[in-house]
Amino acid sequence: MKSLNATEKIIDYIKLNILNGTFKINSKLPSERKIADLFNISRIPVRNAINILCKEGILRAVPYSSPIVEGFKKVDLFDDGEIYKNHNIQEFYVESLRARQLIESEATKLAILNATSKELQKIKYTYLKSIDELDKVSHGLIEECYDADLQFHKEIILASHNPIFIKYYELIPKTVSSNQYFGFKYRNSLKDMISHHNKIMIAFDSKDSYLGYTSMYNHLEDVIQLFQHD
């Protein structure tokens, strides 16, 4: 892999901090000088990076001031030119997520009640791994991140000890993977996802099955909203 030049490093730095919520939507970006000093470089590559991100719509230029953070635009997967438009693919994604929402929320509740100590260790490990992988999203390495997140969900299903839930999850791997992929690709920030995962783990640690159910339900509701038209 080629090393990044100064402008590319600044672009990655800004994107990552938007994704993790440090640079909030509708807030001003730190000054060119502050970013340049952080990397011990001149302001020129910082300005170049900002200009590129403004053209991409991630930042909005403001005369005589720092740009405003716009965030990552939600791309419409289902525009008029989409080949699957006539096959109601949008409805399919929403319906598949609704089914997962009901099953995984109940599975989370059961896992909190039924998981063995070994299963709890696996759930915690996959949770921590999914968080560790998040910074790769800013480098375009989405697959590594959603694979880790997918494993977190799978371990919860297995720990539910419900054979119907486990079999269901085994039968729809491609659907689950596509849900995960687009859930990452078309969100403005990863902050909400991290918050939901944190709440799920708090529920496991406190053995609060109701909190586990609602946290997983709200987590998947957040993904569903990415597929809904405004």
From TrEMBL:
Residue intervals passing through the bilayer: none
A Pfam family the protein falls into: GntR
Molecular-function GO terms, alphabetical: DNA binding; DNA-binding transcription factor activity
Record-annotated HTH gntR-type domain positions: 4-72
Classification via PROSITE patterns: HTH_GNTR (PS50949)
UniProt-recorded name of the protein: Transcriptional regulator, GntR family
Keywords: DNA-binding, Transcription, Transcription regulation
